[in-house]
Amino acid sequence: MNGLEGRTAAVTGGSTLIGQAVVRELHRCGMAVAIADVDDPPGEALAGELGERVLYRHTDITRDDNGRGLLLRGQGDGTFAAIDGSISGIKIPGEQRYAIPADFNRDGRPDLVVTQNDNATKLYLNQSAARGLRIVLHGPRDNPCGIGAELRLKYRDGHLGPTRMAGIGSGPTTSTQLFTLSGTPTELVIRWNGAEEQVVNLPPDLSEIPIRYTPAKIR
User: Distances from the Cα of 141 to the Cαs of 79, 98, 119, 147, 149, in angstroms?
Assistant: First the structure.
């Protein structure tokens, strides 16, 4: 490798195996190398062997605290707006591993649970004033969760909300879909996978409704 002489590199896990081979090659090319590892004896031995331009430091990188997490809110036009933790209330300074929205207290609004590496799981209950609607799908016998179904709300003023598709892995149970409401919905338009549209009238002030697949009538 050319052009590396006089430069500096930090190699995590550089005490043994592939990491050690990388340290040796970078040093051979004229670079100054910092070895970062939790395996002290071989790391210190390698630094002593290579001598000039190499140092070893005990470094534990089993955690990766790169920030406190950021909530991105869809704008409805394919773009997102970043919501600061001081507004969203989501402040997790550890290493977040997995986040999933779901209605944990069954009030129709999406909550958030976040698991962390070697730290406590966080649950954030939605405290916003916006109403939500929880729709539970009961699909046909060969597709009971309604995978592939397309759902869309129609509001009192006539406008249609965005289309939602029920997919595998989209929540704790695929059959449960959560909608944050932008008004008063009057109808749910649902197209079951490969079937005709089904229109369901929605009573006012509803927070949850089960929807059962209704086969199209033969004409």
Answer: 37, 32, 41, 12, 14
DSSP code per residue over 133-201? EEEEEE--TT-TT-TT-EEEEEETTS-B---EE--TTSSSSTTEEEEE-SS-EEEEEEE-TTS-EEEEE
Buried b (16+ CB within 10 A) or exposed e, 26-52: bbeeebbbbbbbebeebbbebbeebee
| pLDDT above 80 (res 217) | no
Q: pLDDT for 58-81, tens place per residue?
A: 988 766 655 677 788 877 677 888
Looking at residue 132, the DSSP 8-state letter turns out to be E
Amino acid at 162: P
What is the pairing mode between strands 164-165 and 185-191? unpaired
| Count of CB atoms situated within 10 Å of the CB of 109 | 24
For residue range 156-201, list pLDDT tens digits in order.
998 988 888 887 764 545 688 888 888 899 999 998 876 778 899 9
d(CA 100, CA 18): 36
What lies within 8 Å, CB to CB, of 100 at 6+ separation is: 112, 113, 171, 172
pTM confidence score: 0.55
135 close to 205: Cβ distance less than 8 angstroms: no
Interval 19-61: pLDDT, tens: 999 999 999 999 999 999 999 999 999 999 999 899 999 988 7
